[in-house]
Predict the 3D structure of the following.
Amino acid sequence: MKQESKLSQKQEPLAETQAEATQNQAQTAREFATSEELLRADAAQTPVPPEIEQRLKKSSAQIQPPPARPWWKNLLGR
């Protein structure tokens, strides 16, 4: 009797672990129509490290927008 209870106690955590693994696999299995959708989904799930975020903010602050063109140059395509 004691051996059976020990065996069943060992099997229960193993069965729970296997059930969790199959649930995780079912949740992570997704198909994407385009690579852009894949990148957007990945970006939504992946946090940006603080060091990289600071460097991006610093470098993007240094970038100046191109000078605005007059409306007539846009219209004539010059």
User: Anything to note?
Assistant: The radius of gyration is 28 Å. Residues 1-46 form one domain. The chain is about 75% helix and 0% strand. The mean pLDDT is 79.
